[in-house]
Amino acid sequence: MRKNLAGVIAALAASLLLLFLAAPTLAILGSAGGAGARGLLADPELRSALALTAGTATAATLVTMLLGTPLAWLLARDRVPGRSVVTALLDLPLLIPHPVAGIALLLVLGRGSAVGGALLDVGIRVVGTPVGIVCAMLFVSAPLYVSAAREAIARVDLRFESVARTLGDSPWRAFRRVTLPLSGRGLLAGAVMTWARAVSEFGAIVIIAYHPRVASVLSYDRFTSFGLREALPVAAALVLLAIVPLVLLRALRRGERAAACSSCGA
How many folded domains does the chain comprise? Predict the structure, then answer.
């Protein structure tokens, strides 16, 4: 009797939480899903914002993969001095409020800073440009990729790398030929999460690059300027865009589980 009662309570609590998490998103799609889809055809500002969002998120993800994969390998193989400090620094962007992240980026990359001034001297302006958007997306989403990549690489047996080294491969060649393919699915899943997080960013972007507008900033701008009715189609389009990486991530995880089961069976 007590077990049945505990099961009922657990199911009720879980249902309430799921309803709370799902209801706002479903309400957006139910209220403006069609308008959001039509806006992709009829609203040039929305199309431009979505294209900018997707393009800058892709750029931020590619930079993250290029710079973050070696760092993830070093962390997974415990080859980073002060590993706990480095890990804490990686986790910090996930913990601080994102408008604060935007202010921090503004201090480092603004025209009055040493870095921002040096970039301006070579013709690269960060604030108020797509470059600033990429920087904001990179700052808030890169820790997700490094964490996922570190776990994926750590699951690769170190003996495989050792065998490649005994056969004459350099550490980089062993990583490229052995570790990278074996951890590839996990790295790709981390990249998908990074892209999805970059697409959804608002707080840091609105500080460092209000113009040109990405989709999240456009939604906020229309809400503050014209009210809820005008903001809903943009919000719905963003939700529809978020479904794409979600579906891809689920497919990757199902493939990873299937591969693990087949290897166990073999």
Answer: 1
Which residue is it, tokens 């809903």?
A: 232
What dihedral do alpha carbons 159, 165, 167, 173 form, nearest 10°? 110
pTM of the complete model: 0.85
Which tokens go with 172?
A: 């980089």
Determine contact, residues 231/49, Cβ cutoff 8 Å: no
Percent of the chain scoring above 90 in pLDDT: 49
Contact assessment for residue 38 and residue 232, using Cβ atoms and an 8 Å cutoff: no
Mention every residue, 6+ apart, whose C-beta is less than 8 A from residue 182. 156, 160
Domain hosting residue 228, numbered range = 36-256
Q: Which range is least confidently modeled, 12-16, 55-59, 159-163, 194-198? A: 159-163
In a domain, 223, yes or no: yes
- In terms of C-beta distances under 8 Å and separation of at least 24 residues, what long-range contacts does 254-258 make, across chains too? 255/185, 256/185, 256/186, 256/189
Range name among 3-17, 27-41, 140-154, 204-218 with the lowest pLDDT average? 27-41
CATH classification at residue 118: 1.10.3720.10
Cis bond upstream, residue 212 (ω within 30)? yes
76 or 80: which carries more pLDDT confidence?
Answer: 76
